[in-house]
Amino acid sequence: MLLRDFKIGKKLLLINLISASFTMTLLILSIAIIALITNRNNLIQDLKIQSRILGESLSASIAFNDAQSAQHLLEALRWSPYIQKVVVLNREGQTFSSYPLQVKIDLNQKLTFWNSLSNVVIQQPIGVSNQQVGQIYIVASLHHIYIQLGKFLLLIFFGMILAGALGVYMIRRLQINLTKPIIGLTDSMRQVSNTDDYSLRFNLDSKDELGELASGFNTMLGKIESHQAKLDSELLRRKHAEDRLQQLAFYDEVTKLPNRHYFKERMEGAVASSIRYKKLCCIMVIDLDDFKIVNDTLGHNVSDDLLLAVAKRLSNVIRTSDVLCRIGGDEFALVLENILIAEEAIQVAKKIINTLSQPFVLEGREVFIGASIGVSLCPTDTADIPILLRNADTAMYSAKNQGKNSYQMYQPEMESKNILRFSLESALRRALENNELLLHYQPQVDLISNQTTGFEALVRWNNAELGLISPTDFIPIAEEIGLIIPIGEFVLYTACLQAQQWRERHAVDINISVNLSGRQLIQANIVERILAIVESTGLPFNLLTIELTESILMDHSKETLDKLEKLSQSGFTISIDDFGTGYSSMSYLKRYPIDTLKIDRSFVSGLPEDANDVAITQAIIALAKNLDMKLVAEGVETEEQLEFLRVHKCDTAQGYLHSRPVVAEQAEQFILNKNDRNVVMNNE
Ligand SMILES: Nc1nc2c(ncn2[C@@H]2O[C@@H]3COP(=O)(O)O[C@H]4[C@@H](O)[C@H](n5cnc6c(=O)[nH]c(N)nc65)O[C@@H]4COP(=O)(O)O[C@H]3[C@H]2O)c(=O)[nH]1
């Protein structure tokens, strides 16, 4: 492990220990050397003094050649801890005396450095009356000095150990004081980097560099925190924007359901898994019936509410695994995955029709719509996604053509019917310019006077290629594509002009009834248009009856009420066609200015045998009488029906019994022959 890998505390401790040990060692060595030199010098000085004293004492012994007394003197040196040996030489240089006895000194031996570290040799001449009589050599050992020095050093060593321990303790304390904040800072940094929590702060109450470091660290965190907050809010904003784009790209704003893009993606997945797991999947296209009327009459806000309510109802009848999307204005689509038999899809379609047939309450009004559903199965019909969708569309159109509020499973034969519809549509667009439209008139006969009092004008379309086309086939198409407006105006103008011509020609007031489509009535200027057209023909307003179906009155809107009141006040008669078949609530009868009810031919057909038809017809007659309204019975085909209606005080009859709808010339005959049925009957 390298020094740089140690923590700061250990580094500091180690550096301090090494430097202290080095310094101490140097110090001890210096002290030891100085002590050694000093002691040695002191010893030399002492020995010199001693040798001089000894020399003076020995001078007499040498002079008198008294070796014994010299020996005694030398013996006294044994108390010196330093003196190793002493040799006294006489004048001739022979050993006179020594200590210890018989000891010799090699006087020729060279004094080396190493010798000088262990011994000290002192030479002192011995004189008597200024004459040298001998010499004294003292050899002293430094051993004792070394022992003293050793003891001294041992003492210093222990002192140093103590000082070292104290130093370590102090360093440790210092280190704790220094490194604690650093460790705290490091921990804080680690915590911040682990948790990304930039609101953390490291509080250090200190004004030194560490205090500055901590405050710098906190400031930096503060800045990062504020940057992070900005970044977070920017990221959030972007996320919202992305979500919003995703929402817009794949979801419908009004219903919050997935849109067409999403639907196509899900279809791909459903088809792929249907093939892989050998199960059926079903695509359902659900088109709302009469949604355009709601949209045109009640406005966009209410229709948006309606779409939302439809989406909720649809969601309630499907499984959570089914995918419901809004793929167009009033068009929804459903993907059902993992179904075993077609019957499962049929059950769902029935549930949808049932739930959407219930009235919707929007802004306090009851609104009725229905749905036409087309169903296509994968892989039974096809596994090609665009074709699958087209098949479901084809089936949906087929359901619509067959009277709406129903479902159809895709059949290949539907293609040809659809082609027929498209050719009908394009031919209808040219019908007016080509004068292919004409009117037939069906007489309405007063049941008391037996006189023809009026006619219902019914449009006919005679196309060179397609032949005579029934209004039940082309009026719904004209309504869908908006052509009903010019067609309706053509009918109104032609019928009023015809009635006026009959009036002028035969001096008789003939009432004329004209059907007014819902699409016509919702035009903002419909009242002005009707007034202008009728006025242009010269027909008195009181001779025109405007026939409306019950469904037109469903919205209870103020606009419809205003329009009908204006029409009524202008003198026109307002009549409800096919009464009793459409709208369950009859509250509109009181609200709107209605003059006449037309009993639907489905009730008349069962008269007088069918007890239900009898009861309903009687009830309608009673209702009309109570509300002071006139009654016209439609579809009167037999004398028995006519008799029943007469007995029950119905006012007017219209039907094949008197005449089918006929061209104007034949209708005129009817006026001339004063209700001679045989003249004009059955010409259609
Ligand atoms: N089985 C039977 N049928 C009888 C009898 N008497 C009359 N009818 C038929 O019943 C329909 C009566 O017209 P609607 O209820 O207004 O029903 C009309 C009306 O809703 C619509 N229509 C016809 N002409 C116009 C028009 O000019 N404008 C609008 N908006 N709709 C029209 O087309 C529907 C069908 O018209 P049409 O085919 O002319 O069929 C006519 C008429 O031919 C009878 O005794 N027995």
Automatic annotation (TrEMBL):
<dbReference type="InterPro" id="IPR043128">
    <property type="entry name" value="Rev_trsase/Diguanyl_cyclase"/>
</dbReference>
<dbReference type="GO" id="GO:0071111">
    <property type="term" value="F:cyclic-guanylate-specific phosphodiesterase activity"/>
</dbReference>
<dbReference type="InterPro" id="IPR003660">
    <property type="entry name" value="HAMP_dom"/>
</dbReference>
<dbReference type="Pfam" id="PF00990">
    <property type="entry name" value="GGDEF"/>
</dbReference>
<dbReference type="InterPro" id="IPR001633">
    <property type="entry name" value="EAL_dom"/>
</dbReference>
<keyword id="KW-0472">Membrane</keyword>
<feature type="transmembrane region" description="Helical">
    <location>
        <begin position="152"/>
        <end position="171"/>
    </location>
</feature>
<dbReference type="Pfam" id="PF00672">
    <property type="entry name" value="HAMP"/>
</dbReference>
<dbReference type="GO" id="GO:0071732">
    <property type="term" value="P:cellular response to nitric oxide"/>
</dbReference>
<protein>
    <submittedName>
        <fullName>Diguanylate cyclase/phosphodiesterase with extracellular sensor</fullName>
    </submittedName>
</protein>
<dbReference type="InterPro" id="IPR052155">
    <property type="entry name" value="Biofilm_reg_signaling"/>
</dbReference>
<dbReference type="InterPro" id="IPR035919">
    <property type="entry name" value="EAL_sf"/>
</dbReference>
<feature type="domain" description="HAMP">
    <location>
        <begin position="176"/>
        <end position="229"/>
    </location>
</feature>
<dbReference type="Pfam" id="PF00563">
    <property type="entry name" value="EAL"/>
</dbReference>
<dbReference type="InterPro" id="IPR033417">
    <property type="entry name" value="CHASE8"/>
</dbReference>
<dbReference type="GO" id="GO:0007165">
    <property type="term" value="P:signal transduction"/>
</dbReference>
<keyword id="KW-0812">Transmembrane</keyword>
<keyword id="KW-1133">Transmembrane helix</keyword>
<dbReference type="Pfam" id="PF17152">
    <property type="entry name" value="CHASE8"/>
</dbReference>
<feature type="transmembrane region" description="Helical">
    <location>
        <begin position="12"/>
        <end position="37"/>
    </location>
</feature>
<dbReference type="InterPro" id="IPR000160">
    <property type="entry name" value="GGDEF_dom"/>
</dbReference>
<feature type="domain" description="EAL">
    <location>
        <begin position="421"/>
        <end position="675"/>
    </location>
</feature>
<dbReference type="InterPro" id="IPR029787">
    <property type="entry name" value="Nucleotide_cyclase"/>
</dbReference>
<feature type="domain" description="GGDEF">
    <location>
        <begin position="279"/>
        <end position="412"/>
    </location>
</feature>
<dbReference type="GO" id="GO:0016020">
    <property type="term" value="C:membrane"/>
</dbReference>
